[in-house]
Specification:
With about 260 residues, the chain is α+β, with helices and mostly antiparallel strands. The chain contains 14 helices and 4 strands. The protein is globular and about 45 Å long.
């Protein structure tokens, strides 16, 4: 039995849902509400002490961290493989996975917060905001970088530079095949999908205007059955639809 504790529009939750659907695995969908603080309850923290989403519970054993979960699913389910057969090619996938975690995953957060949550964050006085941040096991210092609910423009510029670098690397990699590792759709492609969707949703799709191979890649991933099963209605960010109680949902992208 598999249970996935997740949020509809958390990008890391989306990564794992994509993986589960690519492999045709059934699971119990346990939706948590950030507004209600479900991710900070003693019961959930017993499963995932980081207080982030998602968490996969398989036969009673909790597996945390979205990338770890995807590799775990690859190990236990050999059908519909998402890793190549050779060690060298698998190393290429893992190099992409590390890069994705360190560069675009972190880079997309500041523009996401400024675009979606600045009004809600700015409505809190500093004491309220700091009290909110103190409750978060992993994201406290990320929140405290904000000033009046927003990240400074220098932080945004750095994020946009890193996101543009990601697109440039994708464009170069796609020169040798339809997917990042040649002819095979792998975890490298899968883990970039929610990040590209998020960029699209917050108005950053122009970053790949001059990257035709990335544009084609993005069109093709949206045609996969796993895509529409993962990004069901309500699973994509739309500006202006959240309150401060839901603000962590963007921050869980590395959870």
């Amino acid at each position: 039995m598999m249970e996935l504790y997740n949020s509809a529009f958390s990008t890391c939750s989306q990564k794992v849902r994509l993986c589960l659907h690519e492999k045709g695995l059934e699971f119990v969908d346990r939706q948590l509400s950030f507004t209600a603080g479900d991710h900070l309850t003693p019961e959930y923290l017993a499963l995932n002490p980081n207080g982030v989403l998602p968490t996969l519970v398989h036969d009673g054993v909790p597996i945390t961290d979205s990338s770890v979960i995807c590799e775990y699913l690859e190990e236990i389910m050999s059908s519909s493989p998402l890793m190549p057969t050779t060690a060298a090619e698998r190393a290429k996938v893992r190099a992409w996975m590390r890069y994705i975690e360190e560069v675009p995953t972190t880079a997309v957060r500041p523009p996401s917060f400024n675009d979606l949550f600045s009004d809600a964050n700015g409505a809190l006085d500093r004491d309220e905001f700091e009290a909110h941040a103190e409750r978060l096991p992993l994201r406290k210092h990320f929140y405290l970088k904000m000033n009046n609910g927003r990240f400074e423009q220098t932080e945004i510029n750095a994020s946009l530079e890193r996101l543009a670098q990601t697109v440039q690397r994708m464009e170069a990699a796609l020169e040798t095949g339809p997917w990042l590792i040649g002819d095979m759709f792998t975890l490298a492609d899968l883990m970039l999908i929610p990040l590209m969707v998020r960029m699209d949703d917050i108005g950053l799709a122009h970053i790949w205007n001059d990257a035709p191979r990335v544009t084609d890649w993005f069109t093709r991933v949206q045609a996969r059955p796993s895509f529409y099963r993962t990004f069901y209605p309500g699973a994509r960010i739309k500006p202006g639809s959240f309150s401060i109680g839901a603000v962590e949902q963007v921050a869980e992208q590395a959870g």
